[in-house]
Amino acid sequence: MTVISWQAALAGGAFLGGTMIQGLIVLNHQAYRYQRWHGTLLFYAVIAVSLFINTYLARVLPAIESAILVMHILGFFAILITIVHLTSHKSAKEVFATFGNSAGWSSDGLSFLIGLSAGMFAFIGMGP
């Protein structure tokens, strides 16, 4: 059960990565008409890139991981400083007690739980 769960979690992370890439394409290119199978192809692309890096670039993997760590730290502060400086500030009640269901799910609870899918992978210690 543990091995099957591990494999399913890895496949889920790769699929989430592929569909997030597809979402960015939809967001940035209005002429793009998405299909569900496009997300599947991007899923295979994420797996292929991961396989290539872990197989052929294994010697430089520590350098790649160090570069990604630096990019994450710099990106975190760049985004945090920009958001804190430029955003309008809301009250604590507005931030923590107001939920939005702009995707049209049947309930606010379902919308909230589906929105947790990206963060869920970060807490189990793996990513796409």
Radius of gyration: 18 Å
Low-confidence stretches: none
Q: What is the N-to-C succession of helices and strands?
A: HHHHHH
What is the number of helices?
Answer: 6
Terminus-to-terminus distance:
21 Å
How many independent structural domains? Answer: 2
Q: Count of DSSP E strands?
A: 0
Overall geometry comes to globular
Q: What proportion strand?
A: under 5%
Helix content, binned percent: over 70%
On the 0 to 100 scale, the average pLDDT is 86
Largest sheet: none
The chain-level structural class is: mainly alpha
Descriptive notes:
This protein is mostly helical and 128 residues long. The protein folds into 2 domains: 2-56 and 88-123, no CATH class; 60-87. 74% of the residues lie in helices and 0% in strands. α1 packs across α2 (36-56). It starts with a helix and ends in a 5-residue tail after the last helix.
Task: List key phrases describing it.
128 residues, mainly alpha, 2 domains, 6 helices, globular
Give a short synopsis of this structure.
With 128 residues, this protein is mainly alpha-helical. It is built from 6 helices and no strands. The chain folds into 2 domains: 91 residues, no CATH class; 28 residues.
Fold topology:
Blueprint: H1 2-28, H2 36-56, H3 61-86, H4 92-97, H5 108-115, H6 117-123
